[in-house]
Design goal:
The protein is an alpha+beta fold. The protein is built from 3 helices and 18 strands.
Length: about 230
């Protein structure tokens, strides 16, 4: 029985630690453009112990920036960016024109066109609501918006980036030039999760303390009998 108490205490402490880690990441990214909050797996299936976390893909609030190369997606889908040889997916649409005329985000990942390839644009390029990039009124490319294939997985690589093994273009995707999508972190909900995790940790600590007390009493009783 005492061993069971120790295991229960350890499970409660580990669960609370993971939940606090998830809350910490969400709160730390509450102002990160395009960030998707994490949902601790144990909140969805409390009966199972897991370290997995899922992403909340709800659309975050859109805000006007008037940046020429700031874009938000109105609806589902992700921008496709290239980081080295790796294709990644993100809702963070803050791009700038790099020294080679390509659209890059703050980390240097390059925005991809709908038909593949880096997007090269002139400094005065215009983007329409359907993602078509025009220079002096002449369409030259279209911003790619993609969604994972229904049989594919979408996994967070880090921060604002996701990866999937199969993505399809979103038909009739709508772009909001001059706007950015904010993080979808609900701070009130995160604070509630934090308090729940703290209470779980307190209960876990009390269970472990009870185990220690019982073990101490058992050893004391055994010692007296031996004496």
């Amino acid at each position: 029985m005492t061993q069971g108490l120790l295991e229960l205490g350890e499970v409660l402490l580990a669960s609370s630690r993971r939940r606090l880690e998830t809350v910490s990441r969400n709160v730390a990214n509450a102002t990160t453009t395009g960030y998707k909050s994490e949902i601790d797996f144990e909140q969805l299936q409390s009966a199972e112990a897991s370290t997995d976390a899922r992403s909340n893909l709800d659309i975050g609030p859109l805000r006007q920036t008037d940046g020429r190369f700031d874009f938000a997606i109105a609806g589902d889908g992700f921008f496709q960016v290239r980081a080295g040889e790796q294709l990644l997916y993100t809702r963070a649409g803050a791009f700038h024109r790099d020294t080679e005329g390509r659209l890059a985000d703050a980390a240097g990942a390059l925005l991809q066109a709908i038909d593949g390839g880096d997007l090269f644009v002139a400094a005065d390029a215009e983007v329409s609501a359907d993602g078509v990039v025009s220079e002096r009124g002449v369409p030259i490319a279209r911003i790619g918006v993609f969604t994972p294939h229904e049989d594919a997985t979408l996994a967070r690589v880090s921060g604002i980036y996701f990866q999937t093994d199969a993505a399809l273009p979103v038909e009739n995707a709508q772009i909001r030039p001059g706007m950015l999508e904010g993080a979808n972190v609900a701070l009130a909900s995160e604070m509630l999760d934090m308090m729940t995790a703290i209470r779980g940790a307190e209960i876990g600590a009390r269970v472990v303390q009870t185990y220690d007390t019982l073990i101490g009493q058992t050893i004391s009783t055994f010692t007296r009998r031996q004496g």
